[in-house]
Design a protein that fits this description.
heterotrimer; A alpha+beta (553); B mainly alpha (328); C mainly alpha (427); A: 553 residues; alpha+beta; Dipeptide-binding Protein, domain 3; 7-stranded mixed β-sheet; 6-stranded mixed β-sheet; 23 strands; 29% helix; C: 427 residues; mainly alpha; MetI-like fold; 3-stranded antiparallel β-sheet
Chain lengths: 553, 328, 427
């Protein structure tokens, strides 16, 4: 028995002393720790399908240009990166890039235009299935969307390249600004298995950082590439992405200084964070909005015969307008988002200042007006049961939401309440996201709530063009001939100002038609530790240009 | 005897393989007829619609169902579980990244559960129906009634948020690669304390209940009285007679529990962000990663069957009488 | 003479207390009932149209709250359970049953009722808000239908209420100004309801606080008993039917059917249940019904083993063989010979299974796979409260405690039944 007691005491002593051996504080080092909610699947820009993947892969592999955000105009400004300068031809059908001469891959091989051409080749190769496959519409491609290299590229010297656009296209720098991958590493890899190959081999990089270690599901450790032209002595030499799936743990670690930066912070937590004096609160605005989708078409008829017939509830634009009037968007924005966002009244975010039609104002919450409008269209409570009806049909439907999103659950509850006041019965059903999005794209719902993440630069065609076969993203089944004409005009219009005007006209029409009830633009609240200097959070992201960051010691 | 045991094992393995095969077929078809498809994430405004088509082709999802099954079985015989849709790497190598952690974590929890279960039940039985017994019994019932996620969240709240004593998630700190070997070990242990408590408390309660009732049963039987009357020491009675009799029904329970532990302590892994099989399987199901789901199912199935087999063999060793029961 | 408290004492006592506290509501419900019956004679179609769960609920509760105590009082000596002593398990079970039957009266409001979120969100327990009563805008017709509708508004609680406003504080001077989180609004006397010459302003207390949508946690807790009961009962019944039938088939017929079914069961046990649940939920959606089905399908295995084991051992017993020889049909064999013998372990198993199901439903809600916070299920309330852990501990605490007590009691009950029906252990 005595032995057991001695054992016990020894164990306690060891447990008590060991922690003292482990006193390295995690943040007193020349680097920044970013907390992310899940691990990435690939660090290769070919396969970066999520925002995190895109951010990280662009730190490892440079593109010809980098874009800055001009917040006064709401536009992208191109800046040199791998390309020192560029020159458009007189008729804007081709562009000449002059690349830097001193960029080297981390294995010592110099970067040349061979890498650029090879990248375009691989990105557009159907065997590879890269994320940019099929998007090079302004370049010469063959029938399988693979870029015709001979027609498109002309090598002047290892650092000078001419790119030819198709004669009828409206070329833009955004179309061809892709992260460049090293030709000498990937040229002998079987294209079909490129994605599997990439997982097992630590590649070479030319970016401001290189990959030091990837602990699966734990952390991604990037080390500054001191040979890169982007590196300045005194800036951070390490960038770590720490995987913390649980939101509360992430927040706790942010407060305690174990991580330095975190995105997607909930509005409720902001007041507490304001109290800690070492955190800065900012936001990425205008990239994401929630909406209630009213199926403009009758889903069962569309499913059977692909015929476009107006929806029995929501086909009439006056009903949709009334519904928007009946929903208290301000209350949701104020109570759940704590006003971190703005009421949305169209698909164009307020950050696109030059393309936004500023004459439009959002509808305000007015249930009285809603009741009037509805009764004008024929919806009245004829049998006094509290629910509107028309021709014997009750105004009762199911609103579907994807599960796992507290904001949408909150909004759905309020909306159910709001609509019940005007006499519309709403049942709420939450579906698993996979199932939800499948049915949404198949247009099987009458009503649903979802959100869109909008791309920069602005592109309205995939969402609002009436051709439903081509534009699967037109989930409301919106049909408007005028909008189509305007969208097609934008495709071939070369003048930016004229394009802006066309976009404004489209917004006007959509405002009148009210195909959705646009809810609100949601701020992506970003909080970072004051020790990070030189950081600039724009709608393009928080981690952008992080090679310019430095930390207080 | 040995030949019989060998026979049993072979028969068990054979029937288990059939069960596994049926299971995998069941899951295969269930996955493909349930709504939701793996190419969902390729539909987005920034991607070309042609990409989703191409990806579907490469996953073989455009072929008729039976053809898919055929090629699946064909690959399975060669030992190839296919390529995971989300990780784009062979399924078995993906699982290999997560399995060691789950095995280690489960074994640690298992040992804690059995160890503490034993300890507590002995304490309770020594003082049977007395104050200590009542205290421990009531507490174990209470602990069993608290959902494990409530325990987990409360522990995080107390130890991480309020008192900042222990880390709240993950398996290692970010600077762990710079630590010494002992430092790394301690770092891992620190991260596992709260998850282990969360996972094991329920199990301790279960084992305690079973064992205590069994021990009480055995102690009350007349042959024990006989042994005492014949002058055997308390220690010998306990070691040679009470324990084997009380423990044997426990072993099959333990076998089942161990098997379940192996399939991944899902809730604990989710709360604490641990890189285990539970989270892997759930994410695979939610993202409709068919090959990975089947791979995970297979591995879990194998582990459960193995633990059941080991439990039964163990039981047989302790009591040869029960061997006949198993053979039937 | 020491009077021990018996079960029927408690039930009748609680009913009477409830009756006294909610006398208003009960009387209103009776008036509504009379008017509704009258409506059947005067305007049949309208009456049928009005038939709905939300209407029947308070009416039935009103009837029960008077007749149940009377019934129990009369039968108190005839039904043995009613005369047993009270213990902790019994108290909790009785309280839960009262929640279940009399939910419309026990709860303060509709569990989904929300209004003026800036005032009612995330209020701690025992918070009080001011209620400003507005003048009734609707025109009241004095015929039968009009009277019925006005009465209905008094009894059936809806998820919204247009005739009140919640406020943090109210200032009555020449007019009425109310404050909501720093914003003050003036409201003209024309819109207000008056009582005794002064604007009618009352206050309301939220006993257990409110959640993130301003809903009363106490009411949600009470209605949550119904959800838990339905889910638990439904799943247990499904498990019972499956386990019993498959166990009997396998045990009785034996042979190859036995092997097939046993292997099939092994397959089910080899697959971690939670994954099966997720797959099926993806198929059928997250509704309450699919959760019941899925939980039912996950719990029959242990019951199957028990039934099969008993049937096999019974097959060899003399009385059974003789019963078979006499020529009793299979159904009789099952009902008369086997059921009574396996009743004990089956009931024990079912009670534990009930506890497991409630736990599983809570866990599913936690993982986001449950019905979401739209049905007041205790598990979903805990899951939602997790997001507000540091601001609103009461969102997790109260449903957590009720869940804990329910599970504890379920397990205790199983133990007690086990002891009662298995006399061997009692020595």
């Amino acid at each position: 028995m005595r032995f057991k007691q001695i054992y016990f005491i020894l164990l306690l002593l060891i447990i008590g002393i060991l922690p003292a051996c482990n006193t390295s504080s995690p943040t007193k080092f020349n680097g920044v720790v970013v907390g992310i909610s899940s691990d990435v699947e690939s660090l290769n820009p070919l396969f970066s399908f999520t925002v995190n993947e895109g951010n990280i892969s662009e730190l490892l592999y440079l593109s010809p240009l980098q874009f800055q955000w001009d917040s006064s105009k709401g536009e992208l400004i191109p800046q040199p990166m791998l390309a020192k300068s560029w020159q458009w031809s007189k008729d804007s059908s081709s562009i000449t890039f002059y690349f830097r001469k001193n960029v080297k891959w981390t294995d010592g091989v110099p970067f040349t235009v061979k890498d650029v051409i090879f990248s375009f080749d691989v990105y557009s190769d159907p065997l590879v299935q890269s994320r940019l496959f099929g998007t090079f519409k302004s370049l010469y491609t063959d029938s399988s969307q693979h870029i015709n290299l001979a027609k498109t590229f002309k090598v002047v010297n290892p650092y000078e390249l001419i790119i030819n656009f198709r004669k009828d296209a409206v070329p833009s720098l955004v179309d061809i600004n892709i992260p460049i991958i090293p030709e000498h590493v990937f040229k002998n890899v079987d294209r079909k298995n490129l994605i599997t190959y990439e997982k097992n081999h630590n590649s070479v990089f030319d970016g401001a950082f290189y990959l030091k270690k990837w602990n699966k599901n734990q952390s991604i450790i990037l080390q500054a590439n001191k040979n890169s032209f982007l590196y300045k002595p005194g800036n951070i030499d390490r960038l770590i992405f720490k995987v913390i799936p649980d939101y509360t743990s992430r927040l706790t670690q942010l407060k305690q200084g174990e991580i330095d930066l975190m995105e997607d912070i909930r509005a409720d937590d902001v007041p507490i964070l304001r109290n800690s004096n070492n955190l800065v609160i900012t936001a990425i605005k205008g990239r994401e909005y929630d909406y209630i989708g009213w199926n403009n078409l009758n889903p069962s008829i569309y499913e059977k015969s692909k015929k476009i017939v107006s929806n029995q509830f929501f086909g009439d634009y006056r009903v949709r307008t009334a519904l928007t009037d009946a929903i208290n968007r301000e209350e949701i924005l104020r109570e759940f988002l704590d006003n971190h966002g703005e009421i949305a009244y169209g698909p164009v975010a307020p950050i696109f200042k030059s393309e936004l039609d500023t004459t439009l104002i959002p509808r305000s919450y007015d249930p009285g007006k809603a009741k009037e409008l509805l009764s004008q269209v024929g919806w009245r409570d004829s049998n006094n049961d509290g629910i509107l009806d028309k021709n014997g049909k009750k105004f009762s439907f199911t609103l579907y939401i994807p599960s796992g999103n507290p904001r949408r659950q909150f909004a759905a509850s309020i909306i159910q309440n709001n609509l019940r006041i005007v006499g519309i019965e709403v049942k709420i059903q939450s579906l698993e996201p996979e199932v939800f999005f499948g049915k949404m794209f198949d247009k099987k719902f009458n009503a649903w709530m979802a959100g869109w993440s909008v791309p920069i630069p602005l592109d309205l065609k995939p969402y609002w063009n009436s051709n439903l076969k081509e534009n699967i993203l037109n989930v409301a089944g919106y049909q408007n001939h005028q909008v189509n004409t305007l969208l097609n005009k934008i495709d071939v219009e070369k003048s930016k100002e004229k394009r802006n005007n066309l976009n404004k006209k489209i917004q006007d029409i959509i405002y009148k038609d009210e195909p959705f009830t646009f809810l609100y633009w949601i701020d992506n609240i970003v909080v970072y530790n004051k020790r990070i200097k030189g950081i600039n959070v724009t709608p393009l992201g928080a981690v952008l240009h992080c090679w310019n960051w430095s930390v207080n010691k | 005897m040995k030949k019989q045991i060998l026979n049993t094992i072979i028969r068990r393995i054979f029937t288990s393989l059939i069960v596994l095969f049926l299971l995998i077929t069941f899951i295969f078809f269930l996955l493909r007829i349930s709504p939701g498809n793996p190419t969902q994430k390729f539909i987005s405004p920034e991607l070309s619609p042609k990409l989703a088509e191409k990806v579907k082709e490469s996953f073989n999802l455009d072929k008729p169902l039976f053809k898919q099954y055929e090629s699946f079985i064909g690959n399975l015989i060669k030992g190839n579980f296919g390529i995971s849709y989300t990780y784009r790497a062979p399924v078995l190598s993906v699982i290999w990244n997560f399995l060691p952690f789950t095995l280690m974590f489960s074994l640690m929890s298992f040992i804690i559960q059995i160890g503490f279960g034993f300890l507590l039940s002995f304490l309770a039985v020594k003082n049977i129906n007395g104050k200590l017994d009542h205290l421990i019994s009531k507490s174990s019932l209470m602990i069993y009634a608290i959902p494990s996620f409530v325990i987990g969240v409360s522990l995080i709240y107390i130890f991480s948020v309020q008192f900042n004593l222990l880390p709240s998630s993950g398996f290692s700190s970010i600077n762990s690669y710079s630590l010494s070997f002992i430092g790394k070990l301690w770092d891992h242990l620190e991260h596992l304390i709260l998850p282990l408590i969360t996972l094991s408390l329920g199990g301790i309660a279960i084992y305690f209940r079973y064992l205590r009732d069994n021990l009480e049963d055995v102690y009350n039987q007349t042959f024990i009285l006989n042994l005492r009357a014949n002058g055997f020491s308390e220690k010998e009675i306990t070691k040679k007679h009470v324990i084997p009799n009380a423990v044997s029904p426990l072993i099959s329970v333990a076998g089942v529990e161990l098997g379940l532990l192996f399939s991944g302590a899902l809730i604990t892994e989710v709360i604490f962000g641990l890189p285990g099989m539970g989270r892997l399987t759930i994410n695979a199901i939610l993202s409709r990663d068919y090959p990975l789901v089947i791979g995970c199912t297979f591995v879990s199935g194998v582990l459960i069957i193995i633990s059941n087999l080991i439990a039964d063999l163990f039981k047989a060793k302790i009591d040869k009488r029960l061997l006949k029961e198993i053979l039937n | 003479m020491q009077k021990t408290l018996k079960i029927w004492h408690l039930i009748i006592g609680l009913c009477l207390i409830l009756l006294l506290i909610r006398l208003n509501r009960v009387i209103n419900s009776y008036i509504l009932l009379i008017e509704y019956i009258g409506l059947f004679f005067s305007n049949y179609t309208f009456a049928v149209n009005q038939l709905s769960l939300s209407l029947i609920d308070p009416l039935i509760s009103a009837l029960m709250i008077v007749f149940l105590p009377i019934f129990l009082f009369l039968k108190r000596n005839k039904i043995s359970i009613l005369s047993s002593r009270l213990n902790f398990t019994a108290v909790v079970l009785i309280i839960l049953t009262i929640f279940f039957i009399f939910a419309p009266f026990v709860a303060d409001s509709n569990p989904d009722f929300q209004k003026n979120l800036s005032v009612t969100r995330l209020l701690p327990p025992l918070s009080v808000v001011k209620v400003i009563h507005l003048k009734d805008k609707g025109k009241t017709t004095l015929n039968d239908i009009g009277k019925f509708i006005t009465q209905k508004k008094l009894v059936v609680k809806n998820i919204f209420n247009e005739s009140i406003i919640f406020a943090d504080s109210v200032h009555v001077d020449l007019g009425v100004i109310y404050f909501q989180k720093g914003f003050s609004t003036k409201i003209s006397n024309k819109k207000l309801q008056f009582k005794n010459g002064k604007p009618y302003i009352t206050s309301r207390m939220f006993i257990l606080g409110t959640d993130e949508l301003g809903r009363d946690i106490y009411s949600r807790l009470v209605y949550g008993a119904r959800v838990s009961l339905f889910v638990g009962l439904g799943s247990v019944v499904i498990s019972l039917l499956l386990g019993l039938s498959l166990g009997f088939l396998a045990g009785y017929i034996g042979g190859i059917i036995d092997t097939i079914i046993s292997r099939f069961t092994d397959m089910f046990m080899a697959f971690p249940i939670i994954f099966l649940i997720i797959l099926i939920l993806a198929f059928f959606g997250n509704s309450l019904l699919s959760i019941i089905i899925v939980l039912g399908f996950s719990g029959w295995m242990s019951l199957f083993k028990i039934v099969r084991g008993e049937v096999i051992s019974l097959k060899t017993k003399d009385f059974f063989i003789s019963a078979k020889l006499i020529g009793l049909p299979k159904r009789n064999l099952l009902l008369k010979e086997i059921l009574p013998l396996i009743l004990a372990p089956v009931i024990v198993n079912l009670v534990f299974q009930y506890g497991n199901v409630i736990l599983a439903e809570a866990a599913l809600s936690f993982l986001g796979l449950g019905t979401g916070n739209l049905y007041p299920s205790w598990g979903a309330m805990i899951a939602a409260g997790q997001n507000y852990l540091s601001q609103a501990w009461w969102m997790i605490f109260f449903p957590g405690i009720t869940l804990f007590f329910t599970l504890y009691v379920a397990n205790n009950l199983g133990k007690e039944i086990n002891v009662k029906l298995n006399p061997r252990l009692n020595e």
